[in-house]
Amino acid sequence: KVDYDVCSNYGNWLYSAGVGNDPRDSRKFNMIKQGLDYDGNGDYVRLWVPELQGIKGADIHTPWALSSAALAQAGVTLGETYPWPVVTAPEWSRHVHQRPGGSPHPRGRRGPAQHKDRGIDFYFSRKKDA
């Protein structure tokens, strides 16, 4: 199946890039939060960024925040085998060292984030208890 709707896709890409139409000021796409929400174990990143395959779990989303011992164990050397981030947005800080589901790292892991398939009716109905 091909996911293609010209208007929707164009609008979503603009929104994600931070240049789309949004009524809220200073709206930014938070890559760390999205990674934790939709790729909690880091499988997608691990598939496409083989340099980070040795990093376990959600830590793969913020390799620059790991200790040098953890990086060495994973075979990652920042600035050599994997680049330092070009920028680190202030809004990322509250998601660094978090596990899927919002538990702080390293204790209290609750497992992958639970996303309910709400369907389109959730967004248009008056009842929001679903």
From TrEMBL:
Q: Cofactor(s) for this protein?
A: FAD
Extract the GO molecular function terms from the UniProt entry.
damaged DNA binding; deoxyribodipyrimidine photo-lyase activity; FAD binding
- On whether Disulfide bond is a keyword of this UniProt record, the answer is no
Name the Gene Ontology biological process terms: photoreactive repair
- Transmembrane ranges, per UniProt, are none
Q: Where does FAD bind?
A: 3-5
> Which Gene3D superfamilies does the record match to this protein?
DNA Cyclobutane Dipyrimidine Photolyase, subunit A, domain 3
- List compositional bias (Basic and acidic residues) regions by residue number: 114-130
> A Pfam family in this protein?
FAD_binding_7
**Ranges where the record places region Disordered:** 93-130
InterPro entries registered for this protein in UniProt: Crypto/Photolyase_FAD-like_sf, Cryptochr/Photolyase_FAD-bd, Cryptochrome/DNA_photolyase_1
Regarding protein family, the annotation reads: Belongs to the DNA photolyase class-1 family.
Name this polypeptide is given = CRYD protein
Source lineage: Eukaryota, Metazoa, Chordata, Craniata, Vertebrata
Give the gene that encodes this protein.
Crydash_1
